[in-house]
Amino acid sequence: MPFVASGGVRIHYTDTGGEGRAVVLGHSLFMDQEMFAPQAAGLAPDYRVIAIDSRGHGPSEDPGTPFSYWDLARDAWAVVDALGLERVVVGGVAHGGFTAVRMALLAHPRVDGLIMIGSTATAMPAHRKVGYREVIDAWTGDVPLAPTIKMVSSLMIGATPEDQKPWRDKWLAADRARVRAAAECLINRDSVLELLGDIDCPALVIRGLADQANDAGEMADMARALGNPTEVHTIAGASMTPNLTHPGEVNPLLRAFLDGLP
Question: How many domains does the chain have?
Fold first, then answer.
């Protein structure tokens, strides 16, 4: 498995390879790079899909100390640099989207395009922090995990029980405490809304209509604040991970966006 070392962290990633424009993608909390299997299948070989397992997820290794999305953005750039890529498209879902926008802020001359799925640019509102902490405490504690997994999979993945089952099985078999630092990163994230005007590359924003974690108004505010006019596409029937559950609708949007980049 390919890894890149960066500041005491070993970052795992997958890479479809090829000569096409590189698209670097980051997953949502609790999930991993496997959630981009539909994009790897649908975009390669025309595009090179690089999916990163962030700290606390997949085979990536970290010391378990606190980190921010700025740290995760630097991790992702370390992968890009190790692959010898000068310019890339960056994107992600929720947790991965918060990382991607900071990748663009750290090095916007190197970013050809930005893809945000189920993400915003603001700090988490105080009223949401309470519910998130309850979920994380249950997930990382010693109470039976199955009820929490059922609730999380329903909210994040939605679709059908068959769609949710592979992820439920993976979560039940994993070290449940690993995600604590990543969850704190999500809950304590800073707002970057006022910085978005510096990102002048084309951007694509996608939201699942049933997404209960990311407010449609907040996503519209993000789209308006970006340096280029940006459309927001809503996927009916999808929740927080439309790229996973509705690739038939999402992949054509991604391909059209990528095909239209300068």
Answer: 1
